[in-house]
Design brief:
disordered C terminus; 16 strands; 4-stranded antiparallel sheet; 16 helices; 3 domains; Aspartate Aminotransferase, domain 1; Arc Repressor Mutant, subunit A; 14% strand; 8-stranded mixed sheet; Aspartate Aminotransferase, domain 2; 38% helix; single chain
């Protein structure tokens, strides 16, 4: 086996060794359960330091490809059902239906614009062009560029924000790359980065977003290739960065001139905070993703990506080998929605309604002495002594919430629950009493299951 591994290694860096072993595992040449050679034997055979091989092994462990068993050695991970390894599946329990499900993080369907008028207006076949037509409707691209927070070199449309993040990660990241995210971060993003084999490092946050001092130190400790962040209505905390914070972060990021910045503006037009982008300061390194799911409808499955040409062209070129383009019919619907004054007013009403719901629930919770934040978006981030006990207590009252641990790269100082405040249409006092009873559960325990770098929300 030692010869098999060393013979597959062409790049003798830690990342190259990890990539070679990963390929052998994927191909089945290193089957699940087999014991790997020692770090020292691999290092000797390759003529590299044991530290290099140890770093490769750590990358593979973080990606779930191998596991250590103490003195017994290191083994290729056994076959686990993929869903059991996803943070995303821990956010809710599909086998249990509770009367008030506040775990989902989805918009209120009643606040989404009616699509029937747009469908009637554009459903006459006008968008049925050639397979070789531009992937983005020219009229839609013009509207998107007007809305963009900085002039993007290139712009394209894909099938939602997660599709955008997936395609950017696939085009720009390599196995073992150090990638920075907010801590806490959007759980599916953490799943995605693990799937591509990235080594994920959490950057602490404060009330203004990513902590600049912590970011500077992490840049010096590591050599990250990318930073993924949500500029406003951060999921799960609701935090938004202002222009001063964006400028400060941009100045810090000058210390890492090759680092790619990926912004996920997932809340879009229902966010109360103004859109602020690092692309205003670092346009040649910033990729901005604008989603329309929460504002105009999840089933539109549309998000725009704008940024430097080498990133957008790589995404677009690879996409030509798959779906090619996002539905031009749905692009036409989105164009209609973005330019219809009545829809613009409806979305503004939804934004104000979400803000009122957040404020109402937050006010009564604070009145009960509960520590929680809900600055923007549709979610509320509530501190609890123990997330498992709190979720059980809520379930007894027919309320479902999302646990905080799947959002965390590294465990935070306290446990949390994410509550979809945007779905709460009334009964704030009664709900607050239930949430407060869960927040004051006294037993502390094993709810914190995050993993990774020792930086967290504070």
């Amino acid at each position: 086996m030692l010869t098999l591994i060393t013979g597959a290694v062409q790049d003798r860096s830690a990342r190259g060794i990890a990539a070679a072993v990963s390929r052998l595992i994927t191909a089945g040449r290193l089957p699940a359960g087999i014991r790997l050679p020692t770090v020292r034997s691999v290092a000797t055979e390759l003529g590299v330091s044991p530290t290099t091989v140890s770093e490769a092994w750590r990358s593979l462990i973080l990606a779930g490809a191998i596991q250590t068993r103490g003195r017994s050695g290191t083994y290729v991970s056994g076959p686990l059902p993929p869903r059991e390894r996803l943070r995303y599946t821990q956010l809710g329990n599909a086998s249990v239906t509770l009367p008030k499900d506040l775990s989902t993080g989805v918009p209120d369907p009643a606040l989404l614009p009616d699509l029937s008028g747009a469908l009637r207006r554009i459903g006459d076949g006008r968008w049925a062009g050639s397979y070789l037509d531009a992937p983005v409707l020219p009229e839609l691209e013009a509207v998107l560029r007007e809305r963009w927070p900085y002039p993007p070199e290139r712009l394209t449309v894909v099938d939602g924000a997660m599709d955008a993040l997936d395609r950017i990660a696939g085009a720009m990241l390599r196995f073992g790359d150090h990638v920075l995210v907010e801590n806490p971060a959007f759980a599916p993003l953490l799943d995605l980065l693990q799937a591509v084999g990235a080594t994920v490092i959490g950057v602490p946050m404060d009330a203004g977003g990513v902590d600049p001092a912590a970011l500077r130190q992490i840049l010096r400790d590591y050599r990250p290739v990318a930073l993924f962040l949500q500029p406003r209505a951060q999921n799960p905390t609701g935090t938004s960065m202002d222009r001063n914070r964006a400028l400060t972060l941009a100045q810090v990021l000058l210390e890492a001139p090759n680092l790619l910045i990926v912004e996920d503006d997932h809340a879009g037009d229902i966010a109360s905070a103004p859109l602020v982008s690092l692309g205003s300061h670092l346009p040649d390194r910033t990729v901005h993703v604008a989603s329309f799911s929460k504002s105009h409808g999840p089933d539109l499955r549309l998000a725009a990506i704008g940024g430097p040409s080498h990133v957008i062209d790589a995404v677009s070129d690879r996409r030509l080998l798959g779906p090619g383009w996002s539905s031009r019919l749905l692009q036409g619907v989105l164009l209609d929605l973005l330019t219809d004054r009545r829809v613009i007013a409806q979305v503004a009403t939804a934004r104000d309604t979400y803000a009122a719901r957040r404020a109402a629930l937050l006010a009564v919770l604070h009145g009960h002495g509960v520590e929680a934040t809900a600055a923007d978006g549709i979610n509320l981030w509530m501190t609890v002594p123990d997330q498992q006990n709190a979720m059980v207590a809520l379930a007894a009252h027919g309320v479902a919430a999302a646990p905080g641990a799947p959002f965390c790269v590294q465990p935070l100082a306290e446990d949390h629950l994410r509550i979809t405040a945007g779905l709460v249409t009334g009964g704030y006092d009664e709900l607050a009493e239930v949430l407060a009873s869960a927040a004051f559960q006294t037993s502390r325990g094993s709810g914190r299951r995050g993993q990774g770098h020792p930086h967290g929300w504070r």
